[in-house]
Structure formats: C-alpha cells, structure tokens
Amino acid sequence: MDSKSVEDMIEGLSGFHFSGFHMDGSKLNNIEKPTTTLAIENVHKQPFIIGVAGGAASGKTTVCDMIIQQLHDQRVVLVNQDSFYHELTEEELATVHEYNFDHPDSFDTEKLLDSMENLRHGQAVDIPNYDFKSYKNSVFPARRVNPSDVIILEGILIFHDPRVRELMNMKIFVDTDADVRLARRIRRDTVEKGRDIGVVLDQYSKFVKSAFDDFILPTKKYADIIIPRGGDNHVAIDLIVQHIRTKLGQHDLCKIYPNLYVIQSTFQIRGMHTLIRDSQTTKHDFVFYADRLIRLVVEHGLGHLPFTEKQGLYILVWISVRGYAVYQLLEVVRVWRMLCEHVAKGSRLARFLFIGKVRTTVSSLFMKNYHKTSQKGMCCYWILFSARAIQLSKLFHYLQERVYRNPTSYFSISYPHLRVYMWCAKASQE
Ligand SMILES: Nc1ncnc2c1ncn2[C@@H]1O[C@H](COP(=O)(O)OP(=O)(O)O)[C@@H](O)[C@H]1O
Ligand SMILES: Nc1ccn([C@@H]2O[C@H](COP(=O)(O)O)[C@@H](O)[C@H]2O)c(=O)n1
Question: Is residue 218 pLDDT above 50, yes or no?
C-alpha cells in the first residue's frame, strides 16, 4: 500500500489538472444569469436551532445543560422561555396566586420572536433575566446573548406558537412522569424559590396540572425526539448530540441551498465510512465498501435528476482527500467514474480537477476553465479537496453564480462523514 497521503501529494501540486471535453467559449455570453444573487462574502451562517419542551420540572434545563456540555467545541447558547414572561401589572401582582403562569398568554411571544430574528441574522440580543421571586424581569441586568452556531430554546410552551416552532431545526420533548415532576417542583419551589409548600400545591392543582394537559402535552406531537426520563436518559442525549454534530457539518450548505439533499446517516453508512477510512482495511474490502457507498450516492442522486434528453447534466463529486492513501483515492475515482459512465449512458465524461487549497485556487480555476465546459451531455468534475465547510459553501456559491447558470435546477447530495458531495445541474438551454 502506498503510504503517502493524497493530501500531501495534492498539496505538492502546483495548480490543477484536468482532462475531458471542451465547450466552445463563444457560447458563454448566452448563458442566463442566476436568479439567486447572494454575494459570496455575504453568505451568512445560520444557527442550528433546537427547541426543548416538556412539563415544568421535567428536566428540560438539565437535558439542555448536558447537550451544551457535550457540544463544548461549538458556540451554543441557551434561551429560556421564562425570560419572556410578561411583567405583571400592580393589580396582577396584588393577586399573584390567581395568576396562571402556565398559560400561553403569560409569555411575550412577540418579543421572543424578535430576539430570535436578531440572533438568526447575526445580531447580539439582550435577554431579560426573569426573577421568580419578584415576578419581574427588570430586577437583574439583562443577559447579552451573541449569535452562535447552535441556539437552544427551552420552555414549557416553546412548541405552542407555530411561528416559534418553524424556527426550529430540531424539536425535543422531555417526557417525565407527572408524579416525578410534582416531587421535583415541590423541592425546587420551596428550596430555591422560598415558597410555601401549600402555595406550591395550590398552584399545581389550580393551574399547572390542567395547563400541562391542555397546552403542553398537545405539543408533544410536534417533537422530532421524545426523551423519556430526561437527564437520566444518557443514550438519548448521546444520540441527539451525535445528530446535532452531523447536522452542523452540513448545516451551512443546507441552509444556503434549500435544494441540497443530504443522505440520511444510518449505522450501515457510518460503518462503511469507518471501514474505508481505516488504514487496516484490506484493499479488497476497501474496493467493496467504496463501491457500495458510491452506488448509494449515485442512485440517490439519480432520483433527483431533472434530466431530459435535451438537457445536460453536471455531476460534481467532491472527495475529501484527508486520510486517504493514493491507491484508495484512485480506487474511489475509478469506481465513481465507472458508475457515472454507466448512468450517463454513453455521454462523454470526465474532468478531473485537483485542488490543494480551495480558497486560493478556486477563482482562478473556474475563471480559466469554465468556458471549456460542455453545454451538452454530461460532464463529471472530480474535485479532490481539503477544505473547511465554510470554504465549501463559498465554493458552492461560486459555482452556482459562475458555472451553473440555472440555480433552480441544480441539486446536490452529500455524505455526512465522508464529505462526498454530488452536484447536478441542468446545462444552460440553447
Ligand atoms: N434526572 C434527575 N434526577 C434528579 N433530579 C433531577 C433530574 N433532572 C432534573 N432534576 C431536578 O429537578 C428540578 C427541575 O429540573 P430542571 O432540569 O430545571 O427542569 P425544567 O427545566 O424542566 O423545569 C431541578 O431541581 C433539578 O435539579
Ligand atoms: N413567576 C413564576 C413564573 C413561572 N412559574 C412556574 O414555572 C414553571 C415553568 O418553569 P420551568 O423552569 O419549570 O419550565 C411553570 O410551571 C410556572 O408555573 C412560577 O411558578 N412563577
């Protein structure tokens, strides 16, 4: 086995190589302009928003803390729905034991939406610090929350308003037995909030129990994940964190390109990824598993092709070279090529682009060569790269703007772990 890393090899290359068929450069001017005009520099990273709902004292905060702890290498912020309780009027304060803190109207949802909108657009917000003792949100200074990679929205009724739900990329419901919730609530409200046990029980029977049945439990159906036993459920939390990590890896591109298809990561796919990246894997096994993975991608992609006889298709295959030995990479390229030739049914194929540092070479690369791209038949680009996600998103955008002139018809799919992206696009129509 050749032990030299492909990355080393590519880093050593000056520029790129390509082979394949060429397009008449004079046709370039006829190509239509993209309808999407995000400037590369303005590609804004959208946060991944997670909603965590469940009854009072079900363990929502505990679950959020555990997720945040495990995502220590990401910028994560927690926003509590409690922070958006309405200020009580003097009248309401005078009869506070008659006030229903578990009703959806007790929250200032407009303010919460405003804050989320700002955070989503990269602006810091000041979130009030609610004081459970004085029932006011102006006693303590507000907390400055900066835009982050992940925002966790937590609260009993956080799934109640559809506008808030729509913000969420992932919804979790913490499902804990009513008796456990009540026991925890009694301890918390008497010890931490200094309340009388009689008052706590009265509030529970007057408002909390019925509000759970009427408003909170009905939102459970919106959850993507239901966690029984809250913070005791380490398996569920591990799986959630793993999923968030996977999503974060793809997140930039998915958010920027709504027609980006990501193949769902299954145990089988992850297993195959692990095997083909293991230096101990034999050549025979490598070929076998690489072939299976690539077939999956190609077959998945074919299901999305907007292909008609008169249109050309481009398939762009990104192969992250990190960690591959040369023979492995050549094998991947061989299998991809074979499969694409097979599916393209005789179309002319193959353009190989080797990019060492995407950021520095991409513009000159495409400026120099996109005019050579065919407008008919199928063209297959192979880009072997070592780039971070943000660079990738810029490159995708660049391609959309400068190479694929019809953004409504392109699509791409990716493997979460291997970072193989396939991008197909209608060629410009003539
Ligand atoms: N798994 C658990 N075991 C024991 N106590 C817990 C557990 N999860 C939470 N608690 C306690 O229950 C109370 C409520 O938990 P918390 O996570 O704040 O719930 P929520 O945010 O849903 O109100 C807290 O005092 C917390 O320490
Ligand atoms: N002044 C207040 C405000 C709210 N509550 C109760 O808090 C519960 C929600 O908070 P969790 O952290 O448990 O989700 C809710 O059941 C309200 O009744 C309160 O007691 N006093």
Answer: yes
Token digits of residue 124: 């810091």
Rounded to two decimals, the ipTM of the complex is 0.98
Amino acid 389: pLDDT: 42
Same-domain check for residues 181 and 278: no
One domain, residues 129 and 275: no
Q: Is the pLDDT of residue 27 over 60?
A: no
Give the residues across from 2 on adjacent strands: none
**pLDDT per residue over 339-379, tens digit each?**
555 554 444 333 334 433 333 333 333 333 333 333 333 33
**Looking at the structure, do residues 269 and 417 belong to the same domain, yes or no?**
yes
Mark whether 86 and 155 lie in a shared domain: yes
Residue 189 Cα to ligand 1 middle (Å): 12
Which among 52, 60, 61, 62 is the best mutation to test ligand 1's pocket, defined by most ligand atoms within 8 Å of the CB?
62
pLDDT-derived band at 275, boundaries 50, 70, 90: confident
Check if 188 has its Cβ closer than 6 Å to any atom of ligand 1: yes
The number of folded domains in the chain is 2
Q: Does any ligand 1 atom lie closer than 6 A to the CB of residue 184? A: yes
| pTM reported for the whole predicted model | 0.60
CA-nearest residue, atom 4 of ligand 2: 101
